[in-house]
Amino acid sequence: MTETIELKRVGDGNLRAQVYQQIRLTIQHGDLAPGQKLVDVDIAAQLGISRMPVRDALMQLVHEGYLVGTTRGFTLPTLTATDVADIFEVRRLLEPRAAAHAARTLGAADLKTLAAALREAEAAAAAGDADRFFQANSAFRNCWLGAVENERLSQTIARFADHVLVVRLRTLSHQPTQAVVVAGMRAIYEAFVKRDAVAAYDRMTHFIQNAEERFMKLSPPAQHSSGEGESMSQRGKS
Amino acid sequence: MTETIELKRVGDGNLRAQVYQQIRLTIQHGDLAPGQKLVDVDIAAQLGISRMPVRDALMQLVHEGYLVGTTRGFTLPTLTATDVADIFEVRRLLEPRAAAHAARTLGAADLKTLAAALREAEAAAAAGDADRFFQANSAFRNCWLGAVENERLSQTIARFADHVLVVRLRTLSHQPTQAVVVAGMRAIYEAFVKRDAVAAYDRMTHFIQNAEERFMKLSPPAQHSSGEGESMSQRGKS
DNA sequence: CGAGCCAAAACAGTATACACTATAAACTTA
DNA sequence: TAAGTTTATAGTGTATACTGTTTTGGCTCG
Questions:
Q1: What is the arithmetic mean of pLDDT over B158-184?
Q2: Could you give the 3-state DSSP secondary structure of residue A68?
Q3: Taking all residues of chain B, what is their mean pLDDT, rounded to a whole number?
Q4: How many CB pairs under 8 A join A and B?
Q5: pLDDT (tens digit, 9 = 90+) per residue, A126-183?
Q6: Smallest Cα–Cα separation from A71: which of A32, A24, A39?
Q7: Rounded to a whole number, what is the distance in Å from the CA of A178 to chain B's nearest CA?
Q8: Protein residue closest via CA to C1' of C13
Q9: Residue with smallest Cα–C1' gap to D9
Q10: Among A85, A237, B49, B162, which is most buried by a count of CB atoms within 10 Å?
């Protein structure tokens, strides 16, 4: 309402999928104010389509944890420290294994992409450009994750990583954190180049532990589930 | 069409959630023929409601992997050997850790429930009642999974376990398999009773490995993603 | 001046109707 | 008789309209 986000349809076929993609990219890019309300009818009007596809897309995003559906519009979830800890626990379990897989399956082209993303991240860190750094980081992760042959594994990781990434935008502006992240990326990259699955596993473990520590240290602590923060109230689950 | 499944609304709040629950239970219980087509308008007529809530529920189930949405109705996915292997890999990563958690947090009432489920499973196995065995198995799992304090972890596990469980119905009728499963349940239960997180971790690891082996050995092998089996063609994902 | 209540607006849930697409079956032709 | 084409039907995708609920703002009463 107060600040209409610009949305454009991305050609993909299904309207629902288009809207879904668009909103998700908007969220991932951080173009969404923390308290911003996403209202289906508004977005529909902005896109010149009806409410239904928008509504479907929003509900899918809610189900995936990108949004929370309150009684009054959809909005970004405010992750508590517990939420973040939970997500990082799952990531710790999954990502090292996935990295080990990737060490086996990454192609030469992928390694080139990773190298480019790594350089980009270093440049962005040196320039203090948080946004570029964020993008390079995502590119790096998407690349090696794409090489993991277990689709369910990589998709699950991508989802959970995205959840914290939304909040992590803040800590990623922090200069020392950027340095730590770059070092971790480089270590992982080198393991990939050597096709050393064990090293990839270990370094990814280390990387995630570091990321969590950094996050916990720097996060503006919306402490444990006090009555205020709405946290993640999943609805209608088993 | 040919065989209308009986559906009843379960009181929970909004229609979408009710329908979702109902269909999911139907799937989990195995009351759905492998080739059965789920058509929104049919279900809607059967429940005396409109298509929309049914459609939403079906799409949610598709997104969660319980169903696949073809151009002609929704149907059960036919998991290939690769699919099953992928799912078991994720389960191997997640469940031992979750079991270790549960060993710490399970209450006395929970242990009673687990003991009851275990006895029930043993009785069902002795009687050769595959259906009862299946139910007891689910009760056991849901109980300890409910005690895991990391919601995201337990929900992710529940989902993946359900996916193979649908297909596992077949192997679970096999007498020797039932014996193996019961032995595994008992081992895990005893670790829980002793509140031994390490033992719970190890035994769960062993249990899942066993389950996978059993499955692979007995499964009517819809082999690797040949052109025929439609497998899991997720639509509109990243 | 503050608190409680009532009314109106905003927004999600649900229903119905229409359009478009893909699949399958039937008919025609070679 | 077989193969290709066309048509019909089944089923999803999208739109619009309506209803119920919750929240917010204003008004009145204490």
A1: 89
A2: strand
A3: 87
A4: 79
A5: 998 988 999 999 999 999 999 999 999 999 999 999 999 887 887 888 888 999 999 9
A6: A39
A7: 26
A8: B14
A9: B72
A10: B162
d(CA A48, CA A93): 43
Instruction: Calculate mean pLDDT across residues B184-188.
Output: 97
Per CB-CB distance under 8 Å, the chain B contacts of A237 are 155
Which residues of A are less than 8 Å from B10 in CB distance?
A: none
> Which chain B residues touch A59 with a CB distance below 8 Å?
56, 60
* D25 C1' to A73 CA distance, Å: 19
Question: Residue A62, CB half-sphere, CA atoms under 13 Å: how many?
Answer: 23
Question: With a 7 Å cutoff on the CB, does B49 touch strand C?
Answer: yes
- Torsion angles phi and psi, residue A22, rounded to 5: -60, -50
Q: Give CA–CA dist A114/A111, Å, rounded.
A: 5
Nearest C-alpha neighbor of B66 from the set B55, B79, B53: B79
Q: Give the model's pLDDT for residue B71.
A: 82
Pair A78, A229: CB distance under 8 Å: yes
What pLDDT score does B224 carry?
40
pLDDT at A232 over 50: no
- The backbone torsions φ and ψ at residue A4, rounded to the nearest 5 degrees and listed phi first, read -70, 120
Distance from C-alpha of A81 to C-alpha of A101, rounded to nearest angstrom: 30
Name the helix (H) or strand (E) containing B103: helix B81-105
Q: Would you say residue A84 has pLDDT above 80?
A: yes
Q: Does at least one atom of strand D sit less than 7 Å from the CB of A59?
A: no
| Nucleic strand D within 7 A of Cβ B162 | no
Interface test with A, best of B62, B152, B155, B156 (most A CBs within 10 A): B152
Mean pLDDT, rounded, for B87-113: 97
pLDDT at A11: 62
User: Between B94, B158, B232, which is nearest A238 by CB?
Assistant: B158
Does residue A89 contact residue A215 with C-beta atoms inside 8 Å?
no
Query: Above 60 in pLDDT, residue A235?
Result: no
Quick one: which of A207, A220, A233 has its CA closest to A75?
A233
Asked whether the beta carbons of B57 and B23 are under 8 A apart, the reply is yes
Burial of A169 (0-12, 13-18, 19+ CB in 10 A): middle
Which 3 state secondary structure label does DSSP give A178?
Answer: helix
- pLDDT given at position A234: 40
Asked if the Cβ of residue A15 lies within 7 A of any atom of strand D, the reply is: yes
